[in-house]
Amino acid sequence: MLPRAGDVLRVTKAASVQFIEPMLFRVIRVHDWPTYDGWAWLDGYQLNTAGDAVERRSIFVQLNGLQRANVSPTANMRSRASVG
After folding, report:
1. In a domain, 3, yes or no
2. 2, part of any domain
3. Edge to edge, what strands does the sheet with 53-62 contain?
């Protein structure tokens, strides 16, 4: 799976051994840098359980190890609307 900007992924050790603790990651950009077949550099934000960005990161991952995350953007938008 080649992710696109805006995709939310569940990144686990299946994508790279550095991700022993799974994380949610919202993709900003997929770099077109030359790399190993099936691997890619991704820029994006690590998300907390509420879906809020907590850290900007660049990660190097195996594409076939990425999983689409089931997150509801409307739930996150409702919580933000009630705060302000």
Report:
1. no
2. no
3. 53-62, 39-47, 23-30, 8-11, 67-68
Show the domain range for 63. Answer: 8-83
Nearest to 15 by CA among 3, 33, 28, 5: 3
pLDDT score at 80:
54
Q: What is the pLDDT of residues 51-84, one digit of tens each?
A: 999 999 999 999 999 999 987 655 555 555 555 5
Task: Report the candidate in 56, 57, 49 with the shortest Cα–Cα distance to residue 76.
Answer: 49
Which residue, chain included where needed, has tokens 């799974």? Answer: 22
Q: From 27, 83, 69, 74, select the one nearest 61 (Cα to Cα).
A: 27
Residues constituting the chain: 84
Q: CA–CA separation, 22 vs 17, rounded Å?
A: 11
28 falls within a domain:
yes
Q: How many domains does the chain have?
A: 1
